[in-house]
Design goal:
The complex is a heterodimer. Chain A has helices at residues 9-13, 25-46, 58-70, 73-105, 107-120, 129-136, 140-164, 168-176, 181-215, 224-233, 237-265. Chain A is mainly alpha-helical. The radius of gyration of chain A is 25 Å and the shape is flat. By secondary structure, chain B is an alpha/beta fold. Chain B has a domain at 28-105 and 221-281: 3-Layer(aba) Sandwich (Rossmann fold), CATH 3.40.50. Chain B is built from nine helices and ten strands. In chain B, the strands form two sheets. Chain B has a six-stranded mixed β-sheet, sandwiched between helices. A four-stranded antiparallel β-sheet of chain B has the order 2-1-4-5, with helices on one face. The chains are: A mainly alpha, B alpha/beta. The interface between A and B is large, with 36 and 36 residues.
Chain lengths: 271, 295
């Protein structure tokens, strides 16, 4: 039998602190997971439990990273890959956002394009690789095209949905204030759709980045995807893993950058 | 937002010219035999009759309160007068001209405010003057003036998400007034506010009405509010919505809500309106289906 807990007024009035007053706790746990993972990995490699061709030690990967950093290879490959992704993504945004706006605003435009979109959308960008080689050869354009396809559809669909979901009350309010169609599009629908469009751009960039390696398997002579594929051929496993990690890291950074832009542009959204 | 309705040119008001033969000025707003049937709503195969044969005249600078149970067609009536909904039958005229669509001469205030969340308080109030093409400086001055009128000077640069419900409705009111419309249509504007804020805003609306002499139609389901604010109260029941009685509110003493709120005669009006709605409710089609019509 336990004594009844006496709840003091003080205890009730003091606001409960998140994480029990240990703000470092979540970060400590996150760090612990990484350290544990890397430690086990390093131990397994140092004790020669696995063949280094299959799984090189983290230290080997770090030193190969430092080496490529010194000779500039990683920087050049990253920049080439970034350029491709940004060009493909920009093309996806430049075509996807206006078409999405038109489809969202006008029923006729939507009915016209919808069958085409529904037919092409489920085809994975990678399935386009053979055709893009036939059409565009093996230079930069087929790679950018594949990445464009990856980014385009998420951006298009998100933009259509964003326009559709504009609160009709805002449009009625604008009309009662004397707004014509032009004012409604430019001063109400467009700004109201910005958060949804930005979400689409973020998803589109993510998919574009995912398509990168596949696109760079098309007879590439540079780029992170090429670096991985070439290293595989010579069984330089540490470069394969290092390239993968760099792709992941750059993806995280781009996502963070876009999220920061998103926050700046949609600070007004009521949660 | 699939297909934007066309924006027809709204009714343009012109000064009411008293004719030589009629001693009374013509009504500011006249609704003649309005009926509205919504097609394809829910399971109602043959359409849903929201309004049936509504006749109403509103005088210049009058405060007309419209009261009735939920679903009786009050909002539909207001939307038709505002030009947002086309009547199935009948005609609405403003200053003698038929209403063909929304216009800046008929301002609207909604229960859920409808503020543009990406614009500041000032930006919201400036919206009307901006789409009217006024120069920026003039828009700013107008906005400042109407923001002061509703007492929100300190929040000029705040965004809607930073405001309370009562403050948001003040912004919406200032925004509608910034166009200087002759008519203000208010659709349960205080319906989502707590009781204290509601009373404060009632006083505010009455003060602004007295200051600006707008013609106001104020829809509410709160009988007290209708009697406290209105020159007249139109009692509606439905569906299909009809105006079953127009009551001239004659409370002795001040026109101010604060005085009316505690007038003993308020209760008489209230019980009379209750009776009307209850009696009509018993004969409503909805009542036969067990719908709750004002318990």
């Amino acid at each position: 039998m336990s004594a009844p807990t006496i709840v003091t007024e003080e205890a009730l009035l003091s606001s409960p602190r998140p994480n029990g007053g240990q703000p470092w706790r979540p970060w400590a746990l996150r760090g612990a997971a990484l350290v544990l993972f890397l430690g086990l990995w390093q131990a397994a490699a140092s004790l020669k439990l696995v063949d280094p061709v299959f799984l090189p030690a983290p230290s080997t990967i770090v030193s190969s990273f430092v080496a490529t950093l010194e000779d500039g290879a990683i920087l050049i490959n990253s920049l080439i890959s970034l350029r491709r992704v940004l060009l493909g993504f920009a093309a996806g945004a430049v075509l996807g956002v206006p078409l999405g706006l038109a489809m969202g605003l006008y029923r006729d435009v939507e009915n016209f394009f919808d069958p085409l979109v529904e037919l092409l959308r489920p085809i994975p960008p990678l399935a386009w690789i053979p055709l893009s080689i036939i059409w565009l050869g093996i230079e930069e354009s087929p790679k950018i095209f594949i990445i464009f396809l990856g980014a385009f559809f998420p951006i298009l669909l998100a933009t259509v949905a964003a326009v559709r979901n504009v609160d009709p009350l805002l449009i009625r309010a604008a009309r009662s204030l004397g707004a014509g169609n032009r004012d409604i599009y430019l001063r109400v629908v467009l700004p109201a759709a910005v958060p949804g469009i930005l979400t689409g751009l973020r998803v589109g960039l993510g998919v574009a980045w995912t398509c990168l390696v596949a696109a760079e398997l098309i007879a590439a002579r540079a780029g992170l995807g090429y670096m991985i594929a070439a290293a595989r051929r010579f069984l330089v496993t540490e470069v394969v893993i290092m390239g993968m990690l760099v792709i992941g890291l750059l993806g995280v950074l781009m996502e963070a950058a876009l999220r920061a832009i998103e926050q700046r542009l949609t600070f007004w959204v009521e949660k | 937002m699939t297909s934007l309705p066309e924006s027809p040119s709204g009714a343009v008001p012109r000064a009411a010219i008293p004719s030589a033969t009629a001693p009374l000025p013509p009504p500011k707003i006249r609704c003649q035999r309005l009926a509205k049937v919504f097609e394809n709503i829910g399971r109602a195969r043959n359409g849903f009759a929201a309004l049936s044969d509504v006749n109403l005249e509103v005088r210049e600078a009058e405060f007309l309160a419209v009261v009735g149970p939920s679903g009786c067609g009050k909002s539909t009536l207001l939307n038709i007068i505002g030009g947002h909904v086309r009547p199935t039958l009948g005609l609405v005229t403003v200053d003698g001209l038929p209403v063909t669509g929304p216009s800046k001469w008929v301002g609207m205030v909604f229960q859920n405010f409808g503020l543009f969340p990406w614009r500041t308080v000032a930006g919201n109030v400036e919206f009307g003057p901006q789409v009217a093409g006024l120069p920026a400086a003039e828009c700013r001055d107008l906005a400042r003036r109407y923001i002061r009128l509703v007492g929100l000077e300190r929040f000029v640069n705040a965004y809607p998400k930073e405001l309370s419900g009562g403050m948001k409705q003040r912004v919406a009111l200032a925004r509608a007034l910034a166009n200087d419309p002759g008519i203000l249509l208010m659709d349960e504007p205080l319906g989502s506010l707590d009781a204290q804020t509601r009373e404060t805003l009632q006083d505010e609306v009455a003060r602004i009405w007295a200051d600006t002499r707008k013609t106001i139609i104020f829809v509410t389901h709160n009988i007290d509010e209708a009697v406290i604010l209105g020159d007249r109260v139109a009692v509606m029941t439905g569906p299909p919505g009809r105006v079953i009685e127009l009551i001239e509110v004659d409370l002795p003493g001040s026109r101010e809500p604060a005085a009316r709120r505690y007038s003993p005669r308020l209760l008489e009006y209230k019980s009379h309106i209750w009776d009307l709605i209850r009696r009509a409710g018993a004969t409503l089609p909805g009542a036969a289906y067990g719908e709750v019509v004002y318990r």
